[in-house]
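Bench notes, afternoon.
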Amino acid sequence: MTTLILYASQQSMLTDIIILVLLGSAIVGLLALLLWQYRKGKELAQELSQLGKIKKDNVEYEFVLRSMRLSTWYIDPATREIVFDEDYRDKSDTYIPSMGAELVAAMPDHDRARIIKTLNDLCEGHIEEAHEEYQICLPNSKKTYWSESYAIVAERDVDGKPKRIVGTSKRIDDRKNMEQALVEARNRAEESDRLKTAFIANMSHEIRTPLNAIIGFTSVLPDVTDADERKMLLDLVHENTQKLLVIIDDVVNISKIESGKEELVMSEFDINLILQEQADHVRANLKPGVSLRMEFANNEQTINSDLSRFVEVVKHLLSNAVKFTDHGEIVLGYDAPHDGRMRVWVSDTGKGIAPENLERVFERFYKVDEFIPGAGLGLSICRTMAYSLGGSITVKSKLGEGSTFSFELPI
């Protein structure tokens, strides 16, 4: 009996020990599980943080590409294939090739050979990076636009040969237009400076010549007693005074036009009377053998315009015809009004103008013949005044056969 009780007591203790061991194992296992979950949670948090950072970097990367209107691409040197990855270039009204072969084919001949050589040098490892500007031809059109690309060898194999080339491209039409505008502005400034230098030299000569005559002739007048000789000297003084006055008038007119202070004064007048008056003024200056006649469309023709500017244009056109015509005739006339506009013209049989100078004759300070007196301002003044009246002025001429200047204006 005692043995049975002892055996039962031992069995009970063994059971308790087993239970305690199992309970301890469970606690240890639970602690291990908690520790594993904690580590996994920490790793997951790190991965989520890293993922958020990558996502943020991608957003920033995309934002940079979009804001700079860039495209990204890469080249496989083995196949020479160009593949575009992201493309944020402006596609509103232009053609943008998306593949390499299409891109190269869209280039003008003078750009294509250079770009192919640059790409080959990159793929063969001759150069590390490249920067090129080139044009892209629009399909079924002669128009082009400008593009700029940067490329660099991003990865090499064990032998050091390029394995991956990456690059970016963007349109640079605005920059090229600005560069062209700056070049044109510089050329205009240089040309203006040259013309002004020539103008100052020419003006000093043009003013000095009549001034010397005026001073010289007036200085000897007190000693001349013969009436005919005095009249001749006075006529020469008057002639040179008129020449000087014309030069000063041209400079004053240019100053008024540039300042923009002179306003139009519109009035009605008979164009026949005005043209006849201007013709009478220049008859005395015609060279021997040159005649002047009129061709008026109507016996009377009233127009509404600025009289002073109209007269100024006609006066300069007639003066030019007289200066450059040594034989033949000068014709002053106008055509019948049409659609509220009228064309006044001056035709001559003078030396004419070379084709390359037809437009330049309207530039300020430009003179076709440096040996003919004048400041080179007359035709420039004519064009400016014609524009101010809402009209235009053109010229047709053949070298050695004469010229026809046409002044069209609203009436």
